[in-house]
């Protein structure tokens, strides 16, 4: 296990790869296939003698490898692989760990697509999931069966911003021979789940890590053994299901990764300001950096403090009508954009109950505390966040929420 004091930004910065002619960025390899000097070495590659050799880009592409290596460094992982989306990362990890008859335990407050994968899609492969409150460790323990192969959660959940106790979950998992898989999409650099005992970390690179809202991509970080197993020619899910990321895109994500640490600090600083100011005005708001957040202390125990509490803030407008009014007004005033996704330079907002979490049945949404008036904000990189706040407050006044 890696040191809990480990710094992800320095780890990424230490990963150096020069390009052809001494380029400060690694060269881009946009080839699907690779030549061999002799037939004998091609044969060797097929039986696993892959050191220094590239065969075919669904298997490995050098540009993808640069990005994967940097992400492995960031997560303190032995190895990593990049794939075509965050959902590809989650589905391929799941298909690698589980087979027909197996059981998954997952947080019920997760991204809607992941919820649907577990709840609606995987049962056709005879893989069943218990969706529960992941902060209730007794419930997690009680749900474990001899068939359980994977415990899954987002360390900061989408959309409710609950914080998972990774140490406790990993102890429960390992005592029972189960793998703990953590989605760290909301909190890159803020959390290093492998340092607290997680086995695999997945990311949607689409969000904060790329930060430019110009691509969809994902990553899987874990032990060398696990990542190699994903690419096994006969039994590897990423090899056989083919979620390959395009190498040219990898190169642009890699360049954006270089500034992730600075962006995370600014997202967190702005989000904290918005959350504290709204709370002081009596608005119902949830943010992991507010002392009344149920997992504030747990967050502090697990976080890399220099990156703050993250860029995600929830405003509860009580009704869908109020939420829609506020979002329409914020877009008109250029506070940000009415859009799903997160981690952009501009503030993005949506009402998860009728958008990113609409896959979750309404009754379930109610049970998990997802009100129809909830707005999820991914706070942007605004230089003058006080000005942004004043604009939001003026609109909140019009609606009668302050
Ligand atoms: N994980 C989380 C926490 C997400 O919010 C999302 C998408 O919103 C995903 C995974 C899926 O990522 P992608 O859209 O890149 O497939």
List keywords for this structure.
402 residues, binds pyridoxal-5'-phosphate, Aspartate Aminotransferase, domain 1, 15 helices, seven-stranded mixed β-sheet, five-stranded mixed β-sheet, Aspartate Aminotransferase, domain 2, 12 strands, 2 domains, alpha/beta
Largest sheet: 7 strands, mixed
Look at the structure and name the CATH superfamily of the largest domain: Type I PLP-dependent aspartate aminotransferase-like (Major domain)
Major beta sheet, strand line-up: 1-7-6-5-4-2-3
Query: Mind telling me the C-alpha Rg?
Result: 21 Å
Number of domains: 2
Structural class: alpha/beta
What value does the average pLDDT take? 95
Tally of individual helices: 15
Oligomer type: single chain
CATH architecture of the largest domain: 3-Layer(aba) Sandwich
CATH topology of the largest domain: Aspartate Aminotransferase, domain 2
Ligands bound to this protein structure: pyridoxal-5'-phosphate
Overall 3D shape: globular
Order of helices and strands: HHHEHEHEHEHEEEHHHHEHEHEEHEH
Give a nutshell description of this structure.
This protein folds into two domains: 8-257, Aspartate Aminotransferase, domain 2, CATH 3.40.640.10; 261-398, Aspartate Aminotransferase, domain 1 (Alpha-Beta Complex), CATH 3.90.1150.10. It has 15 helices and twelve strands. The chain has helices at residues 8-14, 39-46, 62-75, 86-97, 112-121, 137-143, 166-175, 224-230, 237-241, 247-257, 260-280, 296-302, 320-332, 362-368, 385-399; strands at residues 79-83, 103-107, 128-132, 148-154, 179-183, 200-204, 218-222, 285-286, 312-316, 336-338, 347-350, 374-378.
């Amino acid at each position: 296990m890696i040191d809990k004091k480990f710094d992800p930004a320095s780890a990424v910065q230490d990963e150096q790869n020069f390009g052809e002619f001494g380029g400060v960025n690694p060269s881009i390899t946009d080839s699907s296939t690779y030549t061999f000097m002799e037939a004998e070495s091609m044969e060797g590659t097929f039986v696993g003698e892959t050191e220094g050799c590239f065969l075919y880009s669904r298997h490995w592409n050098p540009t993808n490898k640069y990005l994967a290596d940097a992400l492995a460094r960031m997560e303190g992982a032995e190895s990593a692989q990049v794939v075509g989306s965050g959902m590809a990362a989650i589905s391929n990890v799941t298909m690698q760990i589980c087979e027909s008859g197996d059981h998954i335990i997952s947080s019920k407050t997760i991204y809607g697509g992941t919820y649907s994968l577990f709840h609606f899609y995987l049962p056709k492969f005879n893989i069943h999931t218990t969706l529960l409150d992941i902060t209730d460790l007794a419930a997690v323990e009680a749900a474990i069966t001899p068939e359980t192969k994977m415990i899954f959660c987002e360390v900061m959940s989408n959309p409710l911003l609950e914080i998972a106790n990774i140490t406790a979950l990993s102890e429960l998992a390992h005592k029972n021979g189960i793998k703990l898989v953590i989605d760290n999409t909301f909190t890159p650099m803020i959390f290093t789940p492998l340092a607290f005992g997680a086995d695999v970390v997945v990311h949607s690179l689409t969000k904060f890590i790329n930060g430019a809202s110009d691509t969809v991509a994902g990553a899987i970080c874990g032990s060398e053994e696990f990542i190699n197993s994903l690419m096994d020619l006969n039994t590897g899910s990423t090899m056989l299901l083919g979620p390959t990321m395009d190498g040219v895109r990898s190169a642009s994500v890699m360049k954006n990764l270089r500034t992730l640490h600075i962006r995370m600090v600014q997202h967190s600083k702005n989000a904290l300001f918005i959350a504290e100011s709204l709370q002081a005005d009596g608005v119902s708001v949830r943010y992991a950096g507010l002392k009344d957040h149920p997992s504030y202390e747990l967050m502090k125990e697990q976080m890399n403090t220099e990156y703050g509490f993250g860029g995600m803030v929830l405003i509860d407008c009580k009704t869908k009508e109020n939420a829609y009014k506020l979002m329409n007004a914020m877009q008109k005033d250029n506070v940000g954009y009415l859009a799903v996704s997160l981690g952009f330079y501009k503030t993005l907002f949506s009402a998860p109950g009728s958008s990113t979490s609409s896959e979750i049945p309404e009754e379930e949404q109610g049970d998990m505390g997802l009100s129809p008036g909830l707005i999820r904000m991914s706070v942007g990189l605004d230089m003058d966040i006080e000005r942004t706040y004043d604009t939001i407050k003026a609109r909140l006044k019009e609606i009668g929420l302050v």
